[in-house]
Amino acid sequence: MMMIWGVIVLGLLILWFSHDLPDLKNIQINSRKPSVTVQSYDGAILGTYGDLYEDMVQVHDLPPYVPQALMAVEDRRFYHHFGVDIIGLIRATYANYRAKRVVQGGSTLTQQLAKNILFTQGTYNINDRSYKRKIQEVLLAIWLELKFSKDQILTLYLNRVYFGSGTYGVDAAARRYFNKSARNLTVFEAAVVAGLLKAPSKYSPAQHPKRAKERAKVVLELMVGAGFIRDYQSYLEQGEKELADNARERDQGVRHFSDWVYETLPQIVGAIDKDLIVITTLDVGMQRHAERVCKHYLEEMGKDLKVSETALIAMTPSGAIKAMVGGKDYGDSQFNRVTQALRQAGSAFKTLIYLAALESGMTPDSMMDDTPFEQGNWKPSNFKWRTRGMVTLREGMAHSVNSVSIRLTQQVTPKKVAEVAKRLGITSRLSHDLSISLGTGEATLLELATAYATFANQGLAVWPYGIWEIRDKSGNILYQHPNNPGKQIVNTTVLQGMRDMLRAVVETGSGRAANIDASVAGKTGSNGDKDAWFFGYRENQDDSENKGYSNIVVGVWVGNDNNKPMAKVSTGGRMPTRIAASFFKGENFEQAVKKGEKPKSSSVSPAVQVPAEPPKKPSLEKYLNRIN
């Protein structure tokens, strides 16, 4: 009689705990944020955002060691229990008792899947530890075992579990961390992915490759213990090379660029309500080269010049961004010094003053007084310039003579200078007094580089852009950057004069360190000892022997985030100009550094062919075939 009543009570308890279990008709459907995959126009993935899922992969489509790695870590008796592993639970309880703390878990893969369903269906929040949730988890696990085969349960688990960085499912994790399908993972890579389950952010191979390797070693040892593999040492040795290659393929430097692209998406497509693939203008080879150049000069000159940060932007004359170095280390700081940092332009702003002067009727050969300027208590000095009395505008700009810039501003009026700056893309508010002549207005590196790009773009307006095309996962084109030339904003005669003076800066003036050949022109800039700049361009070369990056515009900034003064000699003609020159040299710089040589500013660089614009139809078929 007692047994009957016990069965009745147990049945009533099961009914009570089961009455509000979630509807499992659509167990494979998850509510999630749409994913955005940002890639270069040749298919390299730069970043992923939102909740990234791939199409469901079946257990039988995977190499056996992929699910085995997960079972070795989480539930090696998966094929031998009914959803709750009594033996494993006893073993975990005993281990925890001996250690006097929780060192083992007793939940099975089926229970973990049940927990995942309860959380994603909104039945409980992620922090819920109530007995009711645990009992419902057990009931749901047993129901899953009765409803589905072991392979089906394992398939559901593999496709729902979270692997960090917004990725859900083993295939999404494989693509995120190794740029391949889970069907093609190696044994070591499978161990890395399985190791993520314990702490996805801590063991991420993208963020912490050393920790990922240590965790993978633990997983491989567990696989040996479970009899899934015979020896782990050879896989571990192979894994060192795989992680090194993966780190090179997924440099974090591109994240400043991909974050900027992601943030601009709503301006183009509005609210993101579907999975998107964003094809960008970034050239991965040029990006890595830019990062190496910036790193080299920070290491070589940063300590002596008291410089802790640098930023670089490279674009085509029409505005397609090819490289963006937002700072020395994205992991340390996600702040983008190309697009977010407002800094005083200093002497880099003087180019726009000379443009206003030429537009008022003057020429590069027009003469201007270079004697010290005084107005009341304001007596700005000239930096390393011996007064000659009268100099040409060409000389004044080449040597960045303050008194010449001030008198030009006084002559054309500060208001006219501010109007010219606005026309060329400077959006920051500028003063309408003589202080504008010394570049006291603030601007971003991107804004200033865009203004200089106008001179390389034959006087046509430039709008910088990083997005070439946007598609959905079915391959439908939702947006393509219009291929329309900008409006003529600098006339041909004035443009010729400006290019003449910009070339003089590099040939005979403050930008001589960038004078690698006659194709380079630009302007240095300094804001006291707080900011140092160089902006310039290298034109297309007809000579096939010319081997550097050409038809490209570059802007460089160096300084300190906290405005701590640099060394007094930290002008734009020092570190920024050398960074730009080495960037223009391409592979010649790389070869010199590898040999331990000091790159010479006068050397000619080897050829690197850089397309002016992305191809009209980016090659995405291979990528789209992977994810559809």
Task: Tell me about this structure.
The chain has 21 helices and 16 strands. The chain is of the alpha+beta class and 628 residues long. The protein has a 5-stranded mixed beta sheet with strand order 2-1-5-12-13, with helices on one face. A 5-stranded antiparallel beta sheet has the order 7-6-16-15-14, sandwiched between helices. A two-stranded parallel ribbon has the order 3-4. Helix 9 runs antiparallel to helix 10 and helix 13 crosses helix 15. The radius of gyration is 31 Å and the shape is elongated.
User: How many DSSP helices?
Assistant: 21
User: How do the strands of the widest beta sheet line up side by side?
Assistant: 2-1-5-12-13
Spatial shape:
elongated
The major pleated sheet works out as:
5 strands, mixed
Radius of gyration of CA atoms, rounded to a whole number: 31 Å
- In terms of structural class, how would the helical and strand content be classed? alpha+beta
Number of strands: 16
Mean pLDDT: 81
Level of helix content? 40-55%
Give the distance, in angstroms, between the N- and C-terminal Cα atoms: 60 Å
Q: State which percent range the strand residues make up.
A: 5-15%
* Unreliable segments of 5+ consecutive residues: 5-20, 543-547, 600-612, 614-628
